[in-house]
């Protein structure tokens, strides 16, 4: 379950950022997670519940933004929604697709007190 390690890393990064800014507590943590990031959302949410205990995030509101995947065809330049890493272009059928977004896993913002 790599989601637990990811949750622990998120907590560690958020706490370090808060401490660097002399904060006492984290009130809100905003995450962006792409549909192709390889994250099982329900597992990550469960892991975060455990990872925030006894930390600066124990009462924080966690806001998640799901980022739908989008690709651009390298042959015909069409931009389209992507379901998997190896989705063909719906215009020309090419597999030469550059993923533009959807692989993100990042902390977008942290609100501290």
Throw out a few tags for this protein.
113 residues; alpha+beta; three-stranded mixed beta sheet; 2 helices
How are the SSEs placed, and which strands pair?
Elements: H1 2-20, E1 26-34, H2 41-51, E2 61-67, E3 70-73, E4 79-81, E5 97-101, E6 105-112
Parallel strand pairs: 1-2
Antiparallel strand pairs: 1-6, 3-4, 3-5
Helix pairs in contact: 1-2
Brief characterization of the structure:
Helix content is about 25%, strand content about 30%. The chain is an alpha+beta fold and about 110 residues long. The chain is elongated and about 55 Å long.
Model description:
Strand 1 (26-34), helix 2 and strand 2 form a beta-alpha-beta unit. The chain has a 3-stranded mixed sheet with strand order 2-1-6, covered by helices on one side. The protein is an alpha+beta fold and 113 residues long. The chain has helices at 2-20, 41-51; strands spanning 26-34, 61-67, 70-73, 79-81, 97-101, 105-112. Helix 1 crosses helix 2 (41-51).
């Amino acid at each position: 379950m790599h989601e637990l390690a990811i949750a622990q890393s998120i907590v560690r990064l958020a706490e370090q950022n808060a401490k660097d800014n002399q904060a006492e507590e984290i009130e809100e943590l905003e995450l962006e997670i792409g549909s192709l990031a390889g994250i099982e959302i329900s597992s990550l949410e469960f892991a975060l519940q455990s990872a925030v205990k006894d930390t600066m995030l124990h009462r924080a509101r966690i806001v998640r933004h799901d980022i739908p995947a989008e690709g651009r065809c390298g042959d015909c330049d069409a931009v389209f929604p992507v379901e998997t890493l190896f989705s063909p272009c719906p215009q020309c059928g090419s597999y030469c697709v550059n993923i533009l977004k959807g692989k993100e896993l990042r902390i977008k913002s942290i609100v501290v007190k």
